[in-house]
Amino acid sequence: MTGRKKVILDVDTGVDDALAIMLAVTSGQLDILGITTVSGNVSLDQASLNTCKILQLLGVSGQIPVYRGADKPLAREAIFEHRVHGADGIGGALGDMPVTKQAEAEPAEDFIIRQVLTQPGEITLIMTAPLTNLARALQKCPELTQHAAEVIVMGGVVQGFGNITPTAEYNMYVDPEAAKQVLAAGFPRLTLVGLDVTRRALLSAEDIAKLRIPAIRDYVEQSTSGYRERYYERNGVQACALHDPLAVGVALNRGFVTVHDYYVDVETRSELCDGQTVCDFQNRLGKPVNAAVCLEVDAAAFLECFIDSLNQEPKKDGSH
Fold it and tell me: Quick one: which of 137, 83, 79, 84 has its CA closest to 106?
């Protein structure tokens, strides 16, 4: 167990969160202390159910606990993404899977606080959902910022267009107040993995064909089918973006991305631009940097890592 990076995954398990969980588990490089769920792509209940299904599919449901978090954003109504992720959030895959795994009783934010405070400087938080759970944890325990090893956020876009409004990326848009709090909290290491890089990490049918374990390949093929169709309609590319898996990829190997340090904030009071991540490229605001922003990605190297990881035969005893 030694030498593996300790992580907590925070998810709103839709199609790409599920793939992110699969990469985290199959890589064998991460000690996943637990997975926290939140309302986002789908409801909290559905996100929690989907997370349990993915852990069962991977044969690790007994080893990785799941903790339920916020069932809506801090100050807004929930916004789901069923058109992209399907009615159940994972494209209808695993629809007939009997689910035996249950979430733990402890609330997600309390689990995050407990783990980070008892293992200071050791835990990386990989956030691939709206940031409601982490914002709630910070409200209870502001000193959390000084004890987390790193926060990796899949969210935002600083040089391109949004994916839910013209300016906003989905996770930021759903709970901009939470994102604003997290960015302002003072984490010494916060990495923003936004659409600037995730849009270049694409999974195609040819890539899926390289998956060698039938149950995994069938799941990925089915769960991403509608997701890839939507992506083609919008972007003219026969593939889907590996948004959330790339955040896990950055935790596995920071060399996949090129980052630059900037001050980043989130718009919360705009008719047109709510949820926009504003990156101060020219230091016009004169504020201290608060984020390492991913601007380039070695997509081929990351994709190779993703395929290789998912091709690992699961170990029955739970060790890697």
Answer: 137
